[in-house]
Structures are given as structure tokens and as C-alpha cells.
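PROTEIN DESIGN WORKSHEET
SECTION A - STRUCTURE
LENGTH: 156
C-ALPHA CELLS:
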């Protein structure tokens, strides 16, 4: 499924499902978010997610070059039932005011609607101050600020 952005010429911005062959560029863009990963690891992750219907990864291309990606997932939680969640969104520098992020969000929102989901949530690091006005501008409402914790588990 490909989506075209309404403000760009039809041959410039295309949003489509990611393929494992997109791994090199998706990995490069992940580094922008502060999550460096090599191509082989990203390829394995994309292949694994491709086989899971509750996950979707879209890429945005301009003239054949990947300039952004988004990962969406369906979550089923005790406290809110089924909900869509944006697990990652990145747009290359120089493309951030061209509607790329908005189109990627729209693609995941449409995917969520097709799955019968009524809401999509996203978490944005408080340090990513440039993303907060973006999410609010496209209709997301800030619900809370929280701390995130992680613990490394040793082998059994």
C-alpha cells in the first residue's frame, strides 16, 4: 500500500511498507534517534516484524531515497484494552518540514483504523523538544510525563 502526500508532486513522496532490503537506510536513520544498529541486526528485526500482523513498519521515500520510517504496533493492555502505539518515528534532517512525518503518522493511523483500533498513542522523550509541538499540531494530546526505567537481566 503506497500513500502520496497531497502537497508534493505525486512522484516525490511515497509511503510504503518496509522491506528487509531497506535495512541499511532504516538502520542509518535509527542512529539519528540515538539507537545505533548495524544493517544485519536491522534486517533481522524487519524480517521478524514482517511476519507479525500486530506490527507494521512504513518507510517514506522521496525520489527513491528513504527519508523516514515509522513502527506501529497493536497493544492489548489491561488498563486500556486494544490500542495502537507508535514505537518509533524518525525523519531525516532536511526533510522534517516537508510533511514526511505527518504522512508516516497517517499511514499508521490508517493501519490502526483498519484493525479496529480507536486510539493511537506515542511516547516522546522529554529531551526531544522539537517533536512535542509536532505531535500536538497533528492532533495528539499530552497525557502525562513519566520516568522510564530499564534493567539489564543477567543470564539464568
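SECTION B - SEQUENCE
RESIDUE ASSIGNMENT:
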Amino acid at each position: 500500500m503506497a500513500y502520496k502526500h497531497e502537497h508534493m508532486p505525486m512522484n516525490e513522496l511515497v509511503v510504503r511498507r518496509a522491506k528487509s532490503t531497506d535495512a541499511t537506510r532504516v538502520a542509518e536513520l535509527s542512529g539519528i534517534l540515538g539507537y545505533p544498529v548495524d544493517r544485519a541486526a536491522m534486517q533481522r528485526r524487519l524480517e521478524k516484524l514482517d511476519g507479525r500482523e500486530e506490527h507494521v513498519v512504513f518507510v517514506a521515500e522521496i525520489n527513491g531515497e528513504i527519508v523516514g520510517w515509522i513502527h506501529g504496533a497493536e497493544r492489548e493492555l489491561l488498563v486500556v484494552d486494544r490500542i495502537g502505539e507508535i514505537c518509533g518515528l524518525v525523519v531525516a534532517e532536511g526533510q522534517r518540514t516537508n510533511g514526511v512525518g505527518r504522512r508516516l503518522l497517517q499511514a499508521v493511523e490508517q493501519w490502526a483504523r483498519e484493525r479496529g483500533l480507536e486510539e493511537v498513542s506515542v511516547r516522546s522523550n522529554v529531551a526531544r523538544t522539537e517533536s512535542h509541538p509536532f505531535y500536538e499540531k497533528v492532533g495528539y494530546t499530552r497525557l502525562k510525563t513519566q520516568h522510564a526505567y530499564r534493567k539489564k537481566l543477567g543470564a539464568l
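SECTION C - NOTES
The beta strands are 3-4, 13-17, 55-62, 65-77, 81-91, 120-122.
Residues 1-10 have pLDDT under 50 and may be disordered.
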